[in-house]
Design brief:
about 20% strand; about 375 residues; single chain; Rossmann fold
Length: about 375
């Protein structure tokens, strides 16, 4: 089938979209990704046997956008397609309009986030901007619910979000869950002493790793780090490349228990992680989008064969029912106790991670998506 994927950014990189596009292409579908215009990027690009056309401007994000949606839909309707696969809520609104014009076309909503829980307006320092942001957020929630009624199928990233969408959209069945798992090779060939040798970390120290951004203010990060490094027997390694990461690196340059390693590509990051002992997860569980989601770092830690210390993100809790490599904590002050518990159960947790990491394979998730498209093809041919 001819598939148009609609995407709300320029598609410099997006692991989930790229994996879906590649998997569907390998399954015999013709995939074109419609993305946002970027001045220094080509309008048309060929990547991994699928096409990219950068067509959208930022108009689709504005409060009053119906005129733009109609205009850009005219261009999309000139393309040949059987399926509109809309990634996230902005693109769903465009797909919904096209569906109203061409009801025979198949509309899929691929929800990467839980919009109702994603209250980004709260981060603004200005009361006026928070009020404006709140009004925009409420309108987008209403727009999403209306547009979702036209979707033939809904896909999302975790079981908790699927259950929430079923309730919010009053669906007969929960959306299909396609986790954002990763493709990687076995960790058996990795150098288990890489981090120890790189930073001269003594053999008797437990290496705790944190990969990716930290969405905390500096004073809260200080408490987080002190909670982890409460014992001299622990070395903490941050893997990242953000501005906050660089600021932390400068702030802790004289600390003998905290180390910093550059964030590389995903396979290299997993190789680096595999030379640590424990992966640490800290997410904002007061944010319902984060609470019901699944952080990629848990997947990376498990693929790397690590025990994990995490607060109670629901996506992790669901997966850990089968994988059994996590010790959960309630508050940052409880992290030392959680690490102590890891030490008590270390061999069991590491064995569980190694034996069950295959459950986090993208291959399994890709099969779910491909089977959905087989169903769509049958519907199309009836």
């Amino acid at each position: 089938m001819n598939v148009l994927m609609l995407l709300d950014h320029p598609f410099i990189s997006d692991n989930r979209v790229e994996k879906e596009a590649v998997s569907l292409t390998k399954a015999g579908h013709h995939v074109t990704v419609l993305a946002e215009v970027e001045d220094d990027l080509e309008k048309n690009e060929q990547r991994n046997e699928f096409s990219i056309i950068r067509i959208f401007t930022g108009e689709y994000k504005k409060y009053f956008k119906q005129k733009y949606i109609k205009e850009v839909s005219k261009s999309i309707l000139q393309l040949e397609f059987d399926v509109l696969h809309c990634h996230d809520y902005h693109m769903l609104q465009i797909g919904s309009y096209i569906k109203s014009v061409r009801p025979e076309k198949i509309l899929i909503y691929d929800s990467h986030e839980y919009l109702r829980g994603w209250k980004i307006y709260k981060g603004s320092q200005s009361l006026l901007n928070r009020v404006k942001g709140y009004l925009v957020w409420k309108k987008e929630i209403l727009n999403e619910k209306r547009a979702a009624k036209k979707a033939d199928f809904i896909v999302t990233v975790t079981k908790p979000i699927a259950n929430l969408l079923k309730k919010n959209f009053q669906l007969k069945e929960a959306p299909l869950v396609v986790h954002n798992f990763i493709d990687t090779t076995s960790n058996d060939k990795y150098d288990k002493n890489y981090l120890r040798n790189t930073f001269n970390i003594p053999n008797d120290k437990l290496i705790v790793a944190h990969i990716g951004n930290i969405y905390l203010e500096l004073n809260k990060i200080d408490f987080f780090i002190k909670s982890i490094c409460s014992s001299e027997s622990i070395a903490l390694v941050f893997i990242g490349n953000s501005k906050k990461f660089l600021n932390l690196k400068q702030h802790y340059k004289n600390n003998s228990s905290v180390y910093f390693h550059d964030y590389l590509n995903q396979p290299e990051n997993i190789k680096t992680l595999s030379s640590s002992d424990v992966g640490i997860v800290k997410i904002d569980i007061n944010d319902l989008s984060h609470l019901n989601g699944l952080t990629n770092r848990y997947v990376e830690y498990t693929i790397a064969g690590l025990a994990v210390v995490s607060n109670r993100q629901k996506g992790i809790m669901v997966l850990n029912e089968n994988i059994q490599n996590v010790v959960f904590y309630e508050h940052d002050k409880d992290i030392p106790k959680a690490i102590d518990k890891v030490l008590e159960q270390k061999n069991e947790l590491l064995t569980n991670a190694k034996n069950n990491a295959h459950l986090l394979s993208w291959k399994t998730e890709a099969e779910k998506l491909i089977n959905l498209y087989k169903t769509l093809e049958k519907l199309k041919n009836e």
